[in-house]
Design brief:
The complex is a heterodimer of chains A (about 300) and B (about 325).
Chain A (H helix, E strand, L loop, with lengths): L14 H37 L2 E6 L11 H14 L3 E6 L2 H12 L12 E7 L7 H11 L4 E3 L2 H43 L1 H10 L3 H39 L13 H31 L3
Chain B lengths: L2 H4 L2 H15 L15 H15 L14 E2 L2 E2 L10 E9 L5 E10 L4 E5 L6 H8 L7 E6 L2 E2 L5 H8 L2 E4 L11 H11 L4 H14 L15 H13 L5 E5 L7 H16 L3 E6 L2 H5 L4 E6 L2 E6 L2 E4 L8
Parallel strand pairs in B: 5-10, 5-11, 8-9, 9-10
Antiparallel strand pairs in B: 1-2, 3-4, 3-6, 6-7, 11-12, 12-13
Helix pairs in contact in B: 2-3, 6-7, 6-8
Classes of the chains: A alpha+beta (about 300), B alpha/beta (about 325).
Chain lengths: ~300, ~325
């Protein structure tokens, strides 16, 4: 029969009806933004990790200097220089099958590229802890075997990373914007509640209630509503992510980022409603204490 | 009386003696004209009783004792801790005329006063100043020996918890049951729900509403709502109880019963101030009356003026 700390009939307010839905939409969007940021973060991390400590050397099929040095001799000479370089742990000429696999996404499976003047590729692995001076190595290779190119992947990796980081930033900004909107909504709803229940709050004060007692009721109300909305929003977001994962699973043969979330990402998604509810609770408390503190 | 208000018989008897004495009723210990011949023995015993029972402070300092000046009730400030002291207080709403002016009075612990006067005389305004709903336009108000002008918000709240108020319009919360309404001060004071429920149920039974614990105010009659309001005002065992026209919505028989109820509380040491314009009711009791006239306070007793100083000392 006793309803401790529910002296204010906040459940009857209009905010009790609309706030959970608003929060659900906001949490849904925020969750998707967060997932976007997490996916991009993973892609960048995977690319960086995958290419760290590697480089590719392209050896042209013909001697551009016209010296008549054979293809095999130029490859041998290049390998020799590479293996002699301090820090290089391995240098391996890619097989035609491996080169075919690399260009398959662009030319399609089963394309006949036997007549194409494709360069020979040498995969170089070096110890990241004592990486060689790649600029000097490139110059040495070009001098010894004209036309040879050393690609450490950093140029295009930097551009890709830039793009991914930008997308990640935008996603983070969207999440922050949604958070700001959620805070503003809670502030508005709390102020409306304070105004609606001013006579009861006045009575509570006359009976001896501290501002914190009143604030506690508003913060509990905000917690209940936002938790309700947050759980709904995250549930919808989870369904959306699972659907996207299902669609992305059929695109494994294309060079698109994998849309997979790890266990920690899922945990972050699951605790998102609690985070939002915590922020809403703190916002409601701050709003009440600030508003009541201005009273004489 | 219910166990809630009674307590063990011996303890209650002691409290009554102590309460009556401090209130200074004519014909009883500590009252003017009684015990004046053997002050030392009687007041030593009184102080011992008060201290042993943890009752509101009776300052046992030196040979002080209540003083009397003719028929006027005057209690030495050296002896009593004053619950309420108004010093040349004036009050007006906004830019309006003074509702109260030059109000001077003080109330010792466990005293009982009627606050009488015609409608619009300023009774409610005076009570509002006492329960800190308004600030005086001029003068000083001391509650429980503290100047209220210097209280912080937190201290104000703490002070209000020591004051029970029966509002003229009851101010019950419609969405709460009678039990929840009465429990409000205890919840605010941070008491645990289980304890609160038992106390409140007993108190509601004491005011004759034992069968209405779960009733909402809208389903109660005016008199029943009033009793719920009274129960809410006294549930926290306030040291000062202010009631604004508490008998306004009940017939004379119920009104007298309510007044007896307030007297019982008074016997337990609570200072009572009852604002009323019901002169016939006031005449049935022997308690001093603070009369508001033209915004000033005069003190009378038994319908006859016993003191009308220029600045209306009421105690």
């Amino acid at each position: 029969m006793l309803r401790a700390n529910r002296d204010l009939p906040l459940e009857r307010d209009a905010s009790a009806r609309y706030l959970p839905w608003l929060i659900a939409v906001m949490v849904y969007l925020a969750a998707l933004g967060l997932v976007g940021a997490l996916v991009m973060n993973k892609v960048v991390a995977r690319w960086s990790a995958g290419l760290q400590g590697t480089a590719t050397v392209q050896v042209p099929p013909e001697d551009p200097a016209g010296g008549g040095v054979g293809r095999a001799a130029r490859l041998d000479r290049t390998i020799e220089i590479l293996l002699a370089t301090d820090g290089v742990t391995d240098a391996r000429v890619l097989e035609p099958d491996e080169i075919a696999a690399l260009i398959e996404p662009w030319l399609g499976a089963g394309a006949d590229y036997g007549d194409l003047p494709l360069p020979d590729l040498i995969a170089v692995t070096f110890d990241p802890a004592r990486a060689p001076d790649l600029a000097r190595l490139a110059a040495d290779l070009a001098a010894a075997v004209p036309g040879t190119l050393l690609d450490d992947h950093q140029r295009w990796l930097a551009r890709l990373t830039n793009l991914a980081r930008s997308i990640e930033l935008v996603a983070g900004f969207v999440v922050a914007l949604i958070g700001f909107a959620a805070v503003a909504t809670v502030v508005f709803a709390t102020r409306m509640g304070l105004s609606l229940h001013a006579p009861i709050i006045h009575l509570l004060h006359l009976i001896g209630a501290q501002d914190a007692y009143v604030a506690q009721q508003f913060q509990a109300h905000a917690l209940r509503l936002t938790l309700r909305g947050g759980v709904l929003g995250v549930a919808l977001a989870a369904v959306t992510v699972l659907l996207l994962q299902r669609i992305a699973a059929g695109l494994d043969d294309l060079p698109v980022p994998s849309f997979q979330l790890g266990p920690y990402d899922w945990i972050l998604l699951i605790v998102l409603p609690a985070i939002v509810a915590g922020i809403a609770m703190a916002t409601a408390r701050f709003t009440v204490l600030r508003t009541l503190g201005r009273l004489p | 009386m219910s166990p809630y208000m009674d307590g063990p018989d011996a303890r209650q008897a002691t409290r009554r003696r102590c309460g009556d004495a401090r209130r200074g009723r004519p014909g009883q210990v500590g009252a003017p004209g009684v015990g004046a011949g053997r002050p030392g023995r009687r007041f030593t015993r009184l102080r011992a009783l008060c201290h042993s029972r943890g009752l509101p402070r009776c300052r046992a300092r030196g040979p002080e004792r209540p003083q009397e000046t003719g028929s006027r009730e005057v209690v030495s400030r050296r002896f009593w801790t004053l619950l309420v002291r108004f010093e040349d207080v004036a009050f007006h709403y906004g830019a309006g005329p003074d509702v109260l002016r030059h109000v001077d009075f003080h109330l010792p612990p466990a005293s009982f006063r009627f606050l009488a006067g015609p409608s619009g005389a300023g009774k409610s305004s005076l009570l509002k100043l006492m329960y800190l709903a308004q600030r005086p336009s001029a003068g000083r108000i001391h509650l429980f020996d503290r100047d209220v002008a210097h209280l912080t918000r937190r201290q104000k709240a703490e002070t209000r918890r020591r004051i029970g108020v029966v509002f003229q319009d009851f101010r019950l919360l419609d969405h709460l049951t009678a039990l929840d309404n009465v429990a409000l001060p205890l919840r605010i004071a941070g008491q645990r729900s289980v304890k609160v429920r038992d106390h409140v149920a007993e108190l509601l039974a004491w005011v004759g509403l034992g069968d209405y614990l779960g009733a909402y105010p809208a389903t109660l009659s005016g008199g029943q709502q009033q009793r719920v309001a009274i129960a809410r005002a006294v549930v926290g065992r306030p040291r000062l109880l202010l009631a604004d026209e508490p008998t306004g919505n009940v017939d004379d028989r119920i009104a007298v019963r309510l007044l007896y109820l307030f007297e019982e509380l008074n016997k337990l040491g609570t200072t009572i101030v009852i604002a009323t314009h019901n002169e016939s009711l006031v005449a049935r009791f022997s308690h001093p009356v603070m009369r508001l006239h033209d915004g000033e306070v005069r003190v009378t007793q038994g319908g006859a003026a016993i003191a009308a100083p220029s600045k209306g000392s009421a105690a």
